[in-house]
């Protein structure tokens, strides 16, 4: 087996329309919705950087220009903050622009996650790469992406993040048919996109983290529109499995999901509650709020 190339590139699909969050997303990307005091996509970029990735390609679409502006320098604002003595805030803005080399390409049409990944082919070339969905991320201490990259390095094969969900939830996800390898690693024998309840091959759901070999692009060229009339990444992975092993890296906790409105609100409450500067007062407010609601 050839020595695995280092994974230094991440692709973040962010071209979706965000219809679950209308009207808030009519004029701004859902990835830029604030989670406490940072946009959701910044947490995703920071996760990639923690895993050693320094080259990031964000797949955008119409109306996503604010994504580029967020990760760019804003010299006027930085100057104003410096003049007012707000050096910590100024330095934080500068750091955002220096997180990594960030590039952008438009998907053109929202034809599914598989199509969004295919758009990255010219940038990625013949190298392995990570895929991080733009509306979910992992806790800083989870080590998920780091573990997936290490697993790729050991086997020189694609690795998909998997998490157990309830039988009722599995139809919302891609679902893996697993074969045990180690405690947190399986070999994926098949993967099915959004299987109907009762027909899923397991309760292991594909979550929004992937480390992919470049052969995935050839598979993406061969698939037909699937669930929802879109090109599904899971269909391409199922095709890739016919030619080379694909592994599933299982995890149990540490995932933040802002893809649904209720989940988005839960994440804000959880992160704000854990903050040293906000947590004590916010938790006290929540206790009083809940107590008053219960009395009513």
Describe this structure in words.
The protein has 296 residues and is of the alpha/beta class. It has two domains: 9-259, Spore Coat Polysaccharide Biosynthesis Protein SpsA, Chain A (Alpha-Beta Complex); 261-296, no CATH class. It contains eleven helices and 13 strands. The chain has helices spanning 40-50, 65-70, 75-83, 87-97, 113-118, 121-124, 144-155, 216-222, 233-241, 261-274, 279-295; strands spanning 9-13, 34-35, 38-39, 55-60, 101-106, 129-132, 136-138, 158-164, 174-182, 185-193, 204-212, 246-250, 255-257. The chain has a five-stranded mixed β-barrel. A two-stranded antiparallel ribbon has the order 2-3. β2 and β3 form a beta hairpin. α3 runs antiparallel to α4 (87-97). The N and C termini lie far apart (66 Å).
What radius of gyration results from the CA coordinates?
20 Å
Structural class computed from helices and strand pairing: alpha/beta
Assign an overall shape.
globular
How many strands in all? 13
Enzyme class: transferase
Domain Nucleotidyl transferase: 10-272
GO molecular function: UTP:glucose-1-phosphate uridylyltransferase activity
Organism: Iamia majanohamensis
Task: Walk me through the topology.
Blueprint: E1 9-13, E2 34-35, E3 38-39, H1 40-50, E4 55-60, H2 65-70, H3 75-83, H4 87-97, E5 101-106, H5 113-118, H6 121-124, E6 129-132, E7 136-138, H7 144-155, E8 158-164, E9 174-182, E10 185-193, E11 204-212, H8 216-222, H9 233-241, E12 246-250, E13 255-257, H10 261-274, H11 279-295
Parallel strand pairs: 1-4, 1-6, 4-5, 8-12
Antiparallel strand pairs: 2-3, 6-11, 7-13, 8-11, 9-10, 9-11, 10-12
């Amino acid at each position: 087996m050839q020595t695995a190339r280092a994974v230094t590139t991440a692709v973040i699909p962010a071209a979706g329309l965000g219809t679950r969050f209308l009207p808030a997303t009519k004029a701004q990307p859902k990835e830029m919705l604030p989670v406490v005091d940072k946009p959701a996509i910044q947490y995703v970029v920071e996760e990639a950087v923690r895993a050693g990735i320094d080259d990031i390609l964000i797949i955008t679409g119409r109306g996503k220009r604010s994504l580029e502006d967020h990760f760019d320098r804003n010299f006027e604002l930085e100057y104003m903050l410096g003049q007012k003595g707000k050096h910590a805030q100024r330095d934080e803005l500068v750091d955002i622009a220096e997180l990594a080399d960030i590039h952008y390409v438009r998907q053109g049409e929202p034809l599914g996650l598989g199509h969004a990944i295919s758009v990255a082919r010219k940038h990625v070339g013949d190298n392995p790469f990570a895929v991080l969905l733009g509306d979910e991320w992992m806790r800083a201490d989870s080590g998920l992406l780091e573990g997936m990259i290490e697993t790729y390095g050991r086997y020189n094969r694609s690795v998909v993040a998997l998490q157990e969900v309830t039988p009722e939830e599995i139809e919302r996800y891609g679902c893996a048919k697993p074969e045990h390898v180690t405690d947190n690693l399986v070999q994926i024998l098949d993967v099915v996109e959004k299987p109907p309840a009762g027909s899923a091959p397991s309760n292991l759901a594909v979550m929004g983290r992937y480390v992919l070999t470049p052969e995935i692009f050839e598979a993406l060229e061969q698939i037909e529109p699937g669930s929802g009339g879109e090109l599904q990444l899971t269909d391409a992975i199922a095709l890739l499995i016919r030619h080379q092993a694909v592994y599933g890296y299982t995890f149990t906790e540490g995932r933040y999901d802002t893809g649904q409105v209720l989940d988005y609100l839960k994440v804000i409450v959880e992160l704000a509650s854990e903050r040293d500067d906000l947590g004590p007062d916010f938790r006290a407010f929540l206790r009083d709020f809940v107590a008053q609601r219960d009395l009513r």
